[in-house]
């Protein structure tokens, strides 16, 4: 797919046709900010989009997704003002911090944020507060995007790319709703200290307040309601106190959603069930760390982590949209990366971030169209396809 990244307009859909990635680095500092109320062309809606390409393959896949957004938007009367800002390792190299204030401000003032990927070997030995990944945590926390939607769908065209047997993988269509701003990722106390025996101890705290559980559970019930009406809450309530409260609060909310069938599952069992019989799942709701792990697992069912988009949403303010894969420094700059997760994240941006469902559908259709034509990147290639 990597060579099929420039878009071409057709009447009904965008066609993804051969072309090369263009690097974003030339215009990475295209400041100053555009003013939000810039006059739109008559009849056009105008949105400010913050683009945070990041590291590794991030700039390549963001460049493609930007083109696709522009084409889909223009077909639906939408105009975008893109503002590209450095984040992660790229920002560390430029200004010495993973999330510069200017980047955060541009993100916060935008209508939606599209992020590529963060991290790389170069910064692996940095002190914790100077690690590129910290940018992600600050963004998630300070934008208050507590609800992370991670769909995992096995497309019929890619069923052979799944690591699971065809009959197990085909038809899988689930949504993982991951809590994103709480739990062990942010809980206090945390850190590495010395105990009374003079030994080093590392501490992280899994902690959830009732309101944090309630708000993510509501997002999950609402999500399930719009899908097949089944919600599975994943926890470790046989061991963890935070999970006991999680289960209690989720159960208490169920009466408000009588049309949703709620079940509970321990996370170890869920990890097993995901590869034993993934079709049993419709919507899954879980905490931050379990959602991190299970969504990587679910991505393999779909054929490649290069396929999975995500949306992170809060109660107000812009949403953050990003592929769930990392920065893949080993293939960066070689035009090999699968851009579909980022392109599909752009579709989620339109749908969940801007409420522009028609434009989102154009992107989803274009992806299916490209796959139907047999175009594949290496990660989803099988014999008979066009390796691009
Ligand atoms: C993810 C990633 C991040 C996370 C890493 C890069 C910090 O794995 O978004 O799933 O753990 O949340
Ligand atoms: Mg992860």
Automatic annotation (TrEMBL):
The superkingdom of the source organism is Eukaryota
**EC number(s) on record?**
1.1.1.85
UniProt xrefs under InterPro entries: IsoCit/isopropylmalate_DH_CS (IPR019818), IsoPropMal-DH-like_dom (IPR024084), Isopropylmalate_DH (IPR004429)
Q: What class does this enzyme belong to in the EC scheme?
A: oxidoreductase
Q: Alphabetically, which GO biological process terms does the record hold?
A: L-leucine biosynthetic process
- A Pfam family per the record: Iso_dh
The entry lists its GO molecular-function terms as: 3-isopropylmalate dehydrogenase activity; magnesium ion binding; NAD binding
Q: In which pathway does it act?
A: Amino-acid biosynthesis; L-leucine biosynthesis; L-leucine from 3-methyl-2-oxobutanoate: step 3/4
Catalytic activity from the UniProt record: (2R,3S)-3-isopropylmalate + NAD(+) = 4-methyl-2-oxopentanoate + CO2 + NADH
Q: How is the cofactor bound?
A: Binds 1 Mg(2+) or Mn(2+) ion per subunit.
- Keywords from the UniProt entry: Amino-acid biosynthesis, Branched-chain amino acid biosynthesis, Leucine biosynthesis, Magnesium, Manganese, Metal-binding, NAD, Oxidoreductase
Q: How does it assemble?
A: Homodimer.
Q: What does this protein do?
A: Catalyzes the oxidation of 3-carboxy-2-hydroxy-4-methylpentanoate (3-isopropylmalate) to 3-carboxy-4-methyl-2-oxopentanoate. The product decarboxylates to 4-methyl-2 oxopentanoate.
Similarity field: Belongs to the isocitrate and isopropylmalate dehydrogenases family.
Name of the protein described by the UniProt record: 3-isopropylmalate dehydrogenase
What taxonomic classification does the UniProt entry list for its organism? Answer: Eukaryota, Viridiplantae, Streptophyta, Embryophyta, Tracheophyta
Query: Corresponding gene?
Result: IMD1
């Amino acid at each position: 797919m990597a060579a099929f990244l420039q878009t071409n307009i057709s009447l009904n859909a965008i066609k993804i046709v051969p072309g090369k990635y263009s690097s974003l680095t030339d215009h990475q500092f295209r400041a100053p900010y555009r003013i939000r109320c810039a006059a739109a062309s008559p009849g056009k809606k105008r949105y400010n989009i913050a683009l945070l390409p990041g590291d590794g393959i991030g700039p390549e896949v963001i460049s493609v997704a930007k083109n696709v957004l522009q084409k889909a938007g223009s077909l639906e009367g939408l105009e975008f003002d893109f503002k590209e800002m450095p984040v992660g390792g790229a920002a560390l190299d430029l200004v010495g911090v993973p999330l510069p204030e200017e980047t955060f401000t541009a993100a916060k003032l935008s209508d939606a944020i599209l992020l590529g990927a963060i991290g790389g070997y170069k910064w692996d030995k940095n002190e914790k507060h100077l690690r590129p990944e910290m940018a992600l945590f600050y963004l998630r926390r300070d934008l208050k995007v507590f609800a992370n939607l991670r769909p995992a769908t096995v497309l019929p065209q890619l069923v052979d790319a799944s690591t699971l047997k065809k009959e197990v993988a085909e038809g899988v269509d689930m949504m993982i709703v991951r809590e994103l701003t709480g739990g062990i990722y942010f809980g206090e106390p945390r850190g590495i200290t010395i105990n009374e025996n003079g030994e080093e101890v590392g501490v992280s705290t899994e902690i959830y307040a009732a309101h944090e559980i309630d708000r993510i559970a509501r997002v999950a019930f609402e999500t399930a309601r719009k899908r097949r009406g089944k919600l599975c809450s994943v926890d470790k309530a046989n061991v963890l106190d935070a999970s006991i409260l999680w289960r209690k609060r989720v159960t208490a909310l169920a009466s408000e959603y009588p049309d949703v069938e709620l079940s509970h599952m321990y996370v170890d069992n869920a990890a097993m069930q995901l590869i034993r019989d993934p079709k049993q799942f419709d919507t899954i709701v879980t905490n931050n760390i379990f959602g991190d792990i299970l969504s990587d697992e679910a991505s393999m069912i779909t054929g490649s982590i290069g396929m999975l988009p995500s949306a992170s949403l809060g109660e107000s303010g812009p949403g953050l949209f990003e592929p769930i894969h990392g920065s893949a420094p080993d293939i960066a700059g070689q035009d090999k990366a699968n851009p579909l997760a980022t392109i599909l994240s752009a579709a989620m941006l339109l749908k969940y971030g801007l409420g522009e469902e028609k434009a989102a559908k154009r992107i989803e259709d274009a992806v299916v169209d490209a796959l139907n034509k047999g175009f594949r990147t290496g990660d989803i290639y099988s014999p008979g396809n066009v390796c691009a």
